[in-house]
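Morning!

This is the sequence you dropped in the shared folder:
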Amino acid sequence: MSLVYYSAAAFILAMIALGLLRVLRGPSSADRLMAAQLIGSGGVAVLLLLSAASDIPAIVDVALMLAILAVFASVGFVNWGTDNDA
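The structure's back. Tokens below.
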């Protein structure tokens, strides 16, 4: 069963690599924001799959921290993109 987890994690990592291309070449900031969300949620998914495959429960804690950081990064990206001087 762990082979299935590892292959699913490899597939998600490949999709994250495509998302990185969109971050670099995104025509608009909305595309870049969605790609950053993909990287955050894909990273959490990979970590959870690796935790299930290797039976190391500490990786789940790292995945939860990455999920929290991804939310803060998205909020920061949205606030940085607005031109409010108030």
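Headline: The radius of gyration is 15 Å.

More detail when I'm at my desk.
O.
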